[in-house]
Known about the structure:
CATH topology of the largest domain: Immunoglobulin-like
Strand content: over 45%
Radius of gyration: 55 Å
Number of helices: 0
Number of domains: 6
CATH class of the largest domain: Mainly Beta
Distance between the termini: 157 Å
Amino acid sequence: MKFIATLFSALIIGFSCRAQVQPPPILHCVSCDNNGDIVLNWSLPSTLCGGAFNAYYIFYSNNINGPYTPITITNQALITYTHNVGNCGSTVYYYYMQSDFNCPGYSFPPSDTLDNLDPVAPEINFVTVNNGLAEINWQSSTSPEAYGYIVYQFINGSYIPIDTVYGKNNTNYLDVNSTPGADTMSYSLATIDSCFNTGPINDFPQHTILLKDSVVRCTQTIYLRWTDYINWKNGVDEYDIFVSKNGAAPAFFDVVPADSLFYQTHAFNDGDSLCFTIVAKENITGFTSVSNEVCIKMNVVQPAYDFYIRNVTVVAPKAIRVSYSVDPRADITKMEIDRGADSTSFSVLAVFSPPADLSVINSYLDTTALTDQVSYYYRVIAQDSCGRRDTSSIGKSIFLRGYAFTDLSFYITWDESFFDYGTVRQYDIYRDDGTGFNFIVTDQPEVFVYEEKNLPVITPCYYVEAIDSMILPNGVKDTIHSRSNVLCLNQPSQIYMPNAFAPEGKNNIFRPVLNVQGVKTFSFSVFNRWGEEIFTSLDPDTGWNGKYKGFYVQQGAYAYMISLVDENGKRVEAKGTVLVVR
C-alpha cells in the first residue's frame, strides 16, 4: 500500500478562545481482502473530549482530491471495517476518518489519508562496510502507513528476507551475519504497514565494495582491485583510497576516477604494515560507501641497496680478506665474488650462500691469491629470488715489492690503495728486523716508495698499511686499514774467497765466506795444476788445510771451484786460484 499526502479539511463545530481538538481514529492500514473487498484497520483516539459519542466517519473516493463519500460508524468500540467494493486489486480508493462527539468548541480534524495501494519501497542511500560488517542505510518511506521495513539480501538473483526493522524512522541496519571481506553483500528493502502488508521490493539493490589486494614482491608493487558500486541514482563520482600505515589512523592516499576499479603503487617500503579501504562517492548527494579493509605486511624482494666493499687486506701469504656490507633487508639467495687484474675485467672467484646476518660487515677469504706477485681488484654480486643481480662497489689489494743491494741498502715500492668512495690519507710502513714488526715511517698519499741504507740486518721484512677515509653514499663514514703482503729482502747470494793462505801459518784453513741465506746444496773442490782433485767438501763449514794425502802441498797456485743452491733455488758458483804460501 502507499500513503498519500494527508488531506486536511477542518470541520469547525465551534470557535472560542479556548478551542480544543478531538483527534480522529488512527487509521493504520487499508488492505485488499481475498474477494476484492477493502478492509480498514484503525485504533481508537488516544483522548476523548468528554461529550457524547455520535459517530466515526469513513470518507472514501477514487480521486485523492474528492469528492469523498461518508460511511457512518456508530459503534464506538469498532476498530475494523470491510468496504464491499469487489475490485480492490484494480481500482484505487482513498480513505480518511473523522470523529464526531457532542463537544461544543472542539474541532474535529481528519486522519491521514490512506489508499489501497502497496506501501512505497524506501530509497536506499548506501550500502557500506562498518567495522567489518555490512550496513544498509535508506530514506524513510513516503507512505504515511509505513510501520517498518523488511531487509532482503540479494543472492544469485533472488531476494532473501533476513530481518525486519520496526519504526518508520529507523533507517539503518547492520547485518551481524555478513562477511563483506569474503564476498560482495547485496541488499534491498520493502516497506510494511502495521497490518504487516508488504509493499514491493526496491528493485535496485545496492551492495558492498569488495576490495582485494596482491603484492608482486619482485617489483615491490601493491595492486588493489575492487568491485564497482552500482545502482546509485546519480552514479559514482570517484573512488578514494585510504591507508593506515604502521598502526596510524586511516588517511586519504589517492583518488581514482569512477570508471577505474584498479590501482597500483610502489610508495611503501619493505616491512610496512598497511591497511587499505576504498571509499565510493555518489554524485550530487555525496553519500559514501566504504569497502572491506585489506591489510598487508610488506615483504617484498628487497634489492641489495647500500652494497659496498668495506676493506681488502692481505692477512697471510696467499690470503686476502675482502670485507663488504649490504642493506640487511636485502632478500639475497646467493652471492658471487669476482676478482680482476683491473677495475673493469673480472672473473668469478667463488659463488656462495649469503651470510646469516646481513646487519654486520661480512667478509670472504680469498686463499688463492698470489699476494707476493700481484694486486687484485674485488667486487661482490648479490642475486635475489627474482633473478636480479646487484653489484657492490670495488676495492683493491696492495702489492709490495722491493730490492736489496750488496751495500746493505733496501728499496721498496707499492701500488696505490683504491676503494670506491675512499680517499687515501697516508701509507704507514712497518719493518721486522728480527724482533717483530714495528712502525718506522709514514708516507704521504702520493708517495709509493721507501728506501733504507746501512741496516744492521741482512734480511729485513716489510709491509705497508694504507689508511683510507671512506664516505659512503648512504652517509656512513669509515676509516680503512688495508695491508699489503709481507716482503722479506735478502742480500744477493755471494761467495767471498781469499786469494792466498799459509797452511802452516796463522790463516791455515782455506774456505769460502758465504753471504747466502739457507744453503740447500754445497760443493767445494780444490785442484792441482795437472787438474787432479786434491780436496772436496759438501759442508760449508769444512775448509782445506793445505794437505793432500796427509802431506802439505808445495807452494804455488791451486784452482778451486764452489757451487751451491740457496733457499730460493738460486745456483751460485765461484771459480779461481788461491796461492799456497809456505
